[in-house]
Amino acid sequence: MAARPSGGENRLVSLPLSRIRVIMKSSPEVSSINQDALFLTARATELFVQYLASYSYKHGRGKEKRALTYSDLSHTAEECETFQFLADILPKKILASKYLKMLEKEKRDGEVKEEEKEEEEDESEEDAES
Amino acid sequence: MAERPEDLNLPNAVITRIIKEALPDGVNISKEARSAISRAASVFVLYATSCANNFAMKGKRKTLNAGDVLSAMEEMEFQRFVAPLKESLEGNRREQKGKKEARKDKDKKADSEEQDKSREEENDDDDERMEEEEQNEEEEVDN
């Protein structure tokens, strides 16, 4: 068997172990990681990528056009409990135009409430006076 | 050590390949989707590490081991990964052992005086696996 650089490519896992280790070590409470744990984390990440992709494709609308879209992923994060830890980094997206309409509606609703409040105050003042 | 943002990302080419392997042929993956999956993968590593670390701490150990990672998978509701992970681990251990023996044979040929020393080392697999650690890693031997 040809010698391979340590920590480098391993045909049982494609993700680079060195990079996985950097991410793991960025966690402050972690002191050391044994070689098996590093390998398993890398391999688990590959399984995770496959699972997230295939699940999202299967349950998403992108497949109507034979595509995996961001929306499929974000939908998965919202709907599937197992993937809910991703909800913050895969937020739902809305069109800018829709968002502006939402803001306008909120503003209008706010103005209507203000008007109603003023009317009530006027009425109670009238009651008080009479 | 300060990490630059790109150090916490996984290589695009590898991520793309893994995604393609999971989907039917000819399915298009938008750049946005690929980037999102890559970020999700990094978050997964962090989450898994944190979870595994909890198990290590429960066991009063400072070093994360294979069992901790497998327990983390169960905890995170990825039980489906446990069996394939165990298989991969077996395969990896066999391969590491094979590599070691191949290197030893190479050494034997290079220097025949070292022969007795190698034979002693062959009997001690566990310790050798520990030694195989990446150089920067400080390893605690937990027996």
Automatic annotation (TrEMBL), chain B:
Location(s) in or outside the cell: Nucleus
Compositionally biased spans, kind Basic and acidic residues: 87-120
| Entry superkingdom | Eukaryota
Query: What are the GO BP annotations of this UniProt entry?
Result: DNA damage response; heterochromatin formation; leading strand elongation
Question: Which keywords, in A-to-Z order, does the entry hold?
Answer: Acetylation, Coiled coil, DNA-binding, Nucleus, Phosphoprotein
| Ranges for region Disordered | 83-143
Q: Which stretches does UniProt call biased (Acidic residues)?
A: 121-143
Q: Name one GO cellular component term.
A: CHRAC
Domain Transcription factor CBF/NF-Y/archaeal histone: residue ranges: 9-73
The record ties this protein, via Gene3D superfamilies, to: Histone, subunit A
Alphabetical list of InterPro entries matching this protein: CBFA_NFYB_domain, DNA_Pol-Epsilon_Subunit, Histone-fold
GO molecular-function annotation terms? chromatin DNA binding; protein heterodimerization activity
Q: Which Pfam families match?
A: CBFD_NFYB_HMF
**Oligomer and partners:** Component of the DNA polymerase epsilon complex consisting of four subunits: the catalytic subunit POLE and the accessory subunits POLE2, POLE3 and POLE4. Interaction with POLE4 is a prerequisite for further binding with POLE and POLE2. Heterodimer with CHRAC1; binds to DNA. Component of the CHRAC ISWI chromatin remodeling complex at least composed of SMARCA5/SNF2H, BAZ1A/ACF1, CHRAC1 and POLE3; the complex preferentially binds DNA through the CHRAC1-POLE3 heterodimer and possesses ATP-dependent nucleosome-remodeling activity.
Instruction: State what this protein does.
Output: Accessory component of the DNA polymerase epsilon complex. Participates in DNA repair and in chromosomal DNA replication. Forms a complex with CHRAC1 and binds naked DNA, which is then incorporated into chromatin, aided by the nucleosome-remodeling activity of ISWI/SNF2H and ACF1. Does not enhance nucleosome sliding activity of the ACF-5 ISWI chromatin remodeling complex.
- Stated name of the protein: DNA polymerase epsilon subunit 3
Q: What is the lineage of its organism?
A: Eukaryota, Metazoa, Chordata, Craniata, Vertebrata
Q: Which gene is this protein's source?
A: POLE3
